[in-house]
Amino acid sequence: MNKNEILSKLSEIFREELDNEEINLTEETTANDVEEWDSLSHIQLIVAVEKAFGIRFTSSEIQSWNNVGEMADSVASKL
Fold it and tell me: Residues with Cβ < 8 Å from 40, sequence gap 6 or more?
């Protein structure tokens, strides 16, 4: 699975979890760019991403992400 495919799947997950069909993620997208993405929904997004890809993140990985691109890199490294 390449990075574009991962970003596409992440966009689907974010749309579903945040109930916003207009979300289109890029590598530069941050929580500040998505109105519904707050600290509580962040946890729900992490769980949904882990479940969708069949992976687990460490808390240090999660804390190190500055944008969606870094999240996608973490997903790719675990596939």
Answer: none
Spatial distance between the Cα atoms of 73 and 18, rounded to a whole number of angstroms: 22
The C-alpha angle with vertex 35 and arms to 53 and 11, in degrees rounded to 5, equals 25
Question: 17-73, pLDDT tens digit by residue?
Answer: 999 999 999 999 999 999 999 999 999 999 999 999 999 999 999 999 999 999 999
> Which string of DSSP letters, residue by residue, matches 12-55?
HHHHHHHT-TT----TT--GGG-TT--HHHHHHHHHHHHHHHT-
Q: What letter would DSSP give residue 79?
A: -
Task: Say how far residue 21 (Cα) sits from the centre of its chain.
Answer: 15
Query: Which residue from 40, 45, 69 is spatially nearest to 57, judged by alpha carbons?
Result: 45
Query: Model pTM?
Result: 0.94
